[in-house]
Write the structure tokens for this entry.
Amino acid sequence: MEVIVKGKNLSVTDALDAHAREKVERIARFFDEEKSDCRAEVELIHERNRARKEPEIVEATLFLNGSVIKATESSVDMYAAIDGMGRKLERQVKRFRSKQVDRWHGERDRQADLEPKPFVVDEVEEEEIEAKIVKTKQFQVKPMGPEEAVMQMELLEHDFFVFTSAESGDVSVVYRRHDGDYGLIEPTT
């Protein structure tokens, strides 16, 4: 597994790098490395704010065969934050694998031949936008069903998730409703 460790507002020492890599590489035992396309990015952040009680933050993002799993942990000590991130990431990967295995037993090889399609956003002229865009994210959209999209949304701990429908090939969105249920937005022509 390829692991990238980077720092923000701190220099990453060899010991911090080795500790973070060790915690993330433990996840590799859950996957067949020959068949999986797996890489991880770990960002070690020191918040320069005296009001913050836990200034050491670790954010890990695991890219696994088109799926994304994230874990974030903060602490007063960077090593404790890395340990907490490792536990969270392991829990999420176990949950992901169990749901994946359950789904495979029900609908084996249904989507095996589908390739992920890149998500392309049309460029909009800057004058048309009145609100200021402060962050832009780009990601590959993998064809999947709404149930898998909900699982991905939960793993990322987001309120919505954009995906390509495996049935229609259209871009769709699942979202968490205020009552705790989920909604699905599908385009129609």
